[in-house]
Design goal:
Elements: E1 2-7, H1 11-21, E2 26-32, H2 36-46, E3 49-51, H3 54-61, E4 65-68, H4 75-84, E5 88-92, H5 99-111, E6 116-119, H6 126-138, E7 145-152, H7 165-168, H8 170-187, E8 190-199, E9 204-212, E10 217-224, E11 231-238, E12 241-246, E13 253-258, E14 267-272, H9 279-293, H10 301-320, E15 324-325
Parallel strand pairs: 1-2, 1-4, 2-3, 4-5, 5-6, 7-10
Antiparallel strand pairs: 7-11, 8-9, 8-15, 9-10, 11-12, 12-13, 13-14
Helix pairs in contact: 4-5, 5-10, 8-10
């Protein structure tokens, strides 16, 4: 079994700890948080020793891999710390707040011979996997139109650091980056992005349109401060048909294919709903399998770096009101 530990005992850290605890190939050996109460509660819940010092935890229990589930501005220092101790890293998204920091984290781990995985979990959701397969099946040569939305309450109501873009990256870097990583995997390289952003004390909303080399347009929305429960949705349409789905749809996928005009109906709808194996479990299980085999993961550290670059480009466009080129960009 692989000895695992978790740094950060909030919501995401609790998920990582719980999944490791129920995973046959993993042995959860410790959790850590600078908030002693949070560390104690999670440690007692999962039945392992808890620490308030990451250095002490790494030196005393000697995990083989550590999950980093702390506020974004703390990611890179803790990645470096784990690498210095020869410990492989699974870091929550985004990897860093800037591409320069992300590059540093990747280089630092490579130089010390440890693996770096980044938790872009959307690629592990069943409906999004089905979407990627459906896009390939439709396969319009002219590309298509993709729209995705994520909206929920403002996380700054619970954790104040989310309101400071210097700490969280704001709604684009923290929330929209889920879909940014996904569209990179689904549609390949993009040419440019044009974005709009509105921010107040209670609302952080952003919309970004990415234009891809193969003709596809992807329009993403992210909304903190939505007066309702969290929800996400997506729809892809091209000359061959429409695919739609979302979190409020029971992880179901709806495919409507275009058919010959002589047919009695203009489309055939095929609903698909499956029982999920938890995507966080699948993600961590996949990363540990890659650690054992040496294979590349579904989402690589380089993918995570590019997601940060694209998110930063969207932020720049939102700030300037101008499109930002993505092909060959440097220093974003």
């Amino acid at each position: 079994m692989i000895r695992t530990a978790v740094i950060g005992c909030g919501g995401m850290g609790s998920i990582h700890a719980d999944r490791y605890k129920s995973m046959p190939e993993a042995e959860l050996v410790a959790v850590c948080d600078i908030d002693e109460k949070a560390a104690e509660v999670l440690g007692n819940l999962v039945g392992v020793r808890y620490y308030i010092s990451a250095v002490e935890m790494l030196e005393q229990v000697k995990p083989e891999v550590v999950s980093i589930a702390v506020p974004t501005f703390m990611h890179v220092p803790l990645v470096r710390l784990a690498a210095d101790h020869g410990v492989h890293v699974i870091c929550e998204k985004p990897l860093a707040l800037t591409s320069q920091e992300a590059e540093e984290a990747i280089r630092y781990c490579e130089e010390r011979g440890v693996r770096l995985f980044v938790g872009h979990v959307v690629r592990f959701f069943r409906s999004y996997r089905q979407l990627a397969e459906g896009i390939k099946q439709l396969g319009s040569a002219q590309g298509g139109i993709y729209h995705a939305k994520r909206a929920g309450s403002h996380p700054g109501n619970v954790k104040a650091w989310f309101r400071d873009p210097q700490l969280s990256g704001g709604v684009i870097m923290d929330l929209m980056i889920h879909d940014i990583d996904y569209i990179r995997g689904a549609f390949g390289e993009a040419l440019e992005v044009y974005a709009f952003q509105h921010q107040s004390e209670t609302i952080n909303y952003a919309s970004a349109t990415f234009r891809f080399k193969k003709g596809t347009l992807a329009q993403l929305e992210a909304f903190w401060g939505y007066p309702g429960s969290f929800h996400s949705s997506f729809e892809y349409a091209d000359a061959e048909g429409i695919i739609s789905g979302g979190a409020n749809d029971g992880e179901s996928l709806h495919i409507r294919r275009s058919v010959a005009s002589s047919s009695a109906s203009g489309a055939v709808e095929t609903p698909s709903s499956v029982l999920l194996k938890d995507p966080y479990f699948e993600e961590l299980e996949h990363f540990l399998a890659c650690l054992r085999s040496g294979e590349e993961p579904i989402v690589t550290a380089q993918d995570a770096l590019e997601a940060v670059r694209w998110a930063a480009a969207a932020q720049k466009s939102g700030a300037t009101g101008q499109p930002v080129r993505l092909d060959g960009m440097e220093g974003i």
